[in-house]
Amino acid sequence: MLLSKLSVILLVLLNTNFNNSLMNKRFASFLSLLSIICITANAQPGTGTKWTPKGDAYYIESQNSILKFDLKSQTFSIVIYANKFIPAGLSQPLEIANFNFTPDQKQVIVFTNAKKVWRYKTRGDYWILDLRTNELKQLGKTLPEATLMFAKISPDGQKAAYVSNRNIYVEDLRSSKIKQLTKTNGNPKLINGTFDWAYEEELSCYDGFRWSPDSKKIAYWQLDASDIKYFNIINNTDDIYSKVTPIEYPKVGEDPSSCRIGVMDVKRGKTRWMNIPGDTKQHYIPRMEWAGNSDEIMVQQLDRKQQVSKIMYANAKTGDTKTIFEETDEAWVDVRTIWHDDNPAGWEWINDGQDFLWISEKDGWNHLYKISRDGKNISIVTDGAYDVIDPLMYDKNTDNVYFTASPDNAMQKYLYRVSVGEQGTAERITPLNQEGTNTYLIAANGKFANHLFQNFYTNVVREWVTLPDHKALDERNGVNSKIDPIKKAASNIRFVEVETKSGVNIEGWMALPTNFDPNKKYPTVFFVYTEPAKQIALDDFSAGKNRQYIGSMADDGYIYISVDGRGTPAPKGSSWRKAIYKNVGIINVKDQAEAAQELMKKYSFIDPTRIAVHGWSGGGSTTLNLLFKYPDMYQTGIAVAAVANQLTYDNIYQERYMGLPQEDMAGFIEGSPMNHVKNFKGNLLYIHGGGDDNVHYQNAEMLINEMVKYNKQFQFMEYPNRTHGIREGEGTTLHLNTMFTKFLKENCIPGGQ
């Protein structure tokens, strides 16, 4: 709804003189908001912001035109009108899902007709607009419609490469001659230049090939999923006969797809395979890029258990490899953080390629390190008892690196910078009065940043600021103008902290009812997630708000609480995050229950006879475990898309956090909710999508069998063909939220007593 309204306004703007200074001032804040929406709403992940060569402006698409936003003046101008994107013989412009300029800015490549592969729209059609001749032509014209993926122009601007049906093609832009570079040889499970389900979902791997700087070679991933079994998703509603959709899905304990890296000579069409050591079925290669030249590539390799990470160079001509950095962990080594939005490598080259920046937890905290190109010199850049949350940008002009952190409050986030070459204390850039959650998109020239601010009483505010002084370009509409002490005082949100019986300090937020009376007792609803994928108890505007509840929980007389325990990705050090190793469904569930016990002791207005809990995905699993393992504490629960049996989930995620079931099955059994059904004695609403390709619907059926076995009565809802987010289909969200609200009100009676 928001985007459609913005589009209407933009249509007016596009028919307005963009040189009119009054218009620029009037709509500056609106356009700044629009720019963020356009920046972050890419059809393909990892494509990044479209900066100009100088980094002082960026391009966005709107209404199939391309606009340029100048950072200094904070004004837009149209650089390519929509009519330039009308193919010959047609009357309407292409619907642009994404675009990129060539480095010389002489051509623009457009992604359209976007279709989903797994979660994201990564296949479709590509067109090239030559800005010198205004010629618009389609790439891969002889290939099946909407099958092209990740089309990229070679650095010399002469060719385009793309993936279609799991093979890599190269096309001469002058002659339109297409050459198939890889062949599956009749094996539909041989994957070139892209990835299987698990690699995409758990390692954030999408685009699987890279042009060499000299435009003569392409380095690419090849996965062989031949031994990966299909998991079949059944569609019973779109026809009178069921339709089966098979997905290559490696369950925990099953070998992953075989993975190797090849370097293709584009002219000769021959591949040199890199001699990366080890069994190709017992490792992962989550990151690979050219190492600043056309002679070698840089690769990150993880072992099957994800406890050993190696960075190595591979010689593009010989295939020989050399490891230059290695780290190990008794739990797991994270796939290295992707840097700013146009660098998917996980490392950042500095000092003209003589060093690179890398994130590691090897000293117990998530820190930045500078590593020399040969790996012989390693020095810490961010030193201290705090975590780097997100590395954002290295500014070569000042030798400073920008990152976010929150040393004193794990529920908040701020911008910092530190010198790379000179050892020193990190400097906080975010003003002290802007307490809450701060996120940044830093311009390519390092002089500007788009700042997004929010806290528990301030809705999202966006502004452009200069760096490093953090001054708003439009102070009248900036963050400082929106921070209202009156709203803070009037908020129903309180932050809570308790020490559990196990000696763990746990923090979170508590939303009190409207017209709260501390002498009454109120029903309390806990919102949970608890797994390594995300932190939910944050000082942001979502605190105290429930997207599944129709109406106001506070007005209806509920207390709403969320706390994050061990295992969540809070910036509290690696020991906090990795306490969950081999204990998913155990340690995290214990922390939630013990925190709830302490909260009930601390706050007499919490009614212990009206306690409910809800969550989605990992939060759904936690909800079930809390209901089943602590039946005397939690009377009511609503679990959505839950993993009822950990043995049904994918190998990369589950083995990272639980190890191999062949070696230690005990944790998988203890952590799976379905194995504790016999203890249940409360009220449960269980919801699952029949087309869930992430947490498969089989979890629901396995749980149902156990509930039947022990004669446990509960309410169940399947949404046919809906995926993990259960959003598809007319009326779905309203139906789910209505059911959620009704069930909660009927089984956890609202209001103070």
Strand content: 25-35%
Number of H/I helices: 13
Distance between the termini: 40 Å
CATH superfamily of the domain at 491-747: Alpha/Beta hydrolase fold, catalytic domain
Instruction: Return the CATH architecture of the domain at 491-747.
Output: 3-Layer(aba) Sandwich
Number of β-strand runs: 43
Shape summary: globular
Strand order of the largest sheet: 36-37-39-38-40-41-42-43
Helix content: 10-25%
Mean pLDDT across all amino acids: 92
Question: Uncertain segments of ≥5 residues (pLDDT<50)?
Answer: 1-46
Radius of gyration, in angstroms, nearest whole number? 27 Å
Architecture overview:
With 753 residues, the protein is α+β, with helices and mostly antiparallel strands. 16% of the residues lie in helices and 34% in strands. Among the domains are: 183-335, Dipeptidylpeptidase IV, N-terminal domain (Methanol Dehydrogenase, Chain A, 8 Propeller); 491-747, Alpha/Beta hydrolase fold, catalytic domain (Rossmann fold). Strands 36-37-39-38-40-41-42-43 form an eight-stranded mixed beta sheet, sandwiched between helices. Strands 13, 14, 15, 18 and 19 form a five-stranded antiparallel beta sheet that branches. A four-stranded antiparallel beta sheet has the order 1-2-3-4. Strand 33 and strand 34 (458-466) form a beta hairpin. The model is unreliable at 1-46 (pLDDT under 50).
Question: How would you summarize what this structure contains?
Answer:
16% of the residues lie in helices and 34% in strands. The radius of gyration is 27 Å and the shape is globular.
Layout: helices, strands, pairs:
Elements: H1 2-14, H2 21-26, H3 28-40, E1 50-51, E2 57-62, E3 65-70, E4 75-80, E5 96-101, E6 107-115, E7 123-130, E8 135-138, E9 148-153, E10 159-164, E11 167-172, E12 178-180, E13 190-192, H4 197-203, E14 209-211, E15 217-224, E16 230-235, E17 243-248, E18 258-265, E19 270-273, E20 283-290, E21 296-303, E22 308-315, E23 321-328, E24 348-350, E25 355-360, E26 367-372, E27 378-380, E28 388-395, E29 400-405, E30 414-419, E31 427-428, E32 437-442, E33 448-455, E34 458-466, E35 471-472, H5 479-482, H6 485-490, E36 493-499, E37 505-511, E38 522-527, E39 559-564, H7 574-577, H8 587-602, E40 606-616, H9 618-629, E41 636-640, H10 651-658, H11 666-671, E42 683-689, H12 698-709, E43 715-719, H13 732-747
Parallel strand pairs: 38-39, 38-40, 40-41, 41-42, 42-43
Antiparallel strand pairs: 1-2, 2-3, 3-4, 5-6, 6-7, 7-8, 9-10, 10-11, 11-12, 13-15, 14-15, 15-18, 16-17, 18-19, 20-21, 21-22, 22-23, 24-25, 25-26, 26-27, 28-29, 29-30, 30-31, 32-33, 33-34, 34-35, 36-37, 37-39
